[in-house]
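CHAIN AND CONFORMATION:
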Amino acid sequence: MTTPAQTESTEAKAPTSVVLTDVAAQKVKALIEQEGRDDLRLRVAVQPGGCSGLRYQLFFDERSLDGDVVTDYDGVGVVVDRMSAPYLAGATIDFADRIDAQGFTIDNPNAGNSCACGDSFS
């Protein structure tokens, strides 16, 4: 299997979609298996709200909407709607299970500011 880096020029390009770490992909896969459904994908969206203006939403979804950007990570489908895609391009979703952090985390290079709780950004 070839990777995009092997087929593109040596000029670096910014990612156009969300990146899911291996740890996060394993956790998403396990959660979907617990649901007992094979039609679910992880939908990542940006909605107005939160103390910084925009809030992340992560949820399982079986729908396919017009303009969705779908990326597969080792059998885990990650879906971003067309309105959220520009806000999330290049964002990395990871899963932490430490004493200081538990749950999914999002490292978003497009976020100028974020609140202390990490749930919203601008």
The chain has a mean pLDDT of 79.
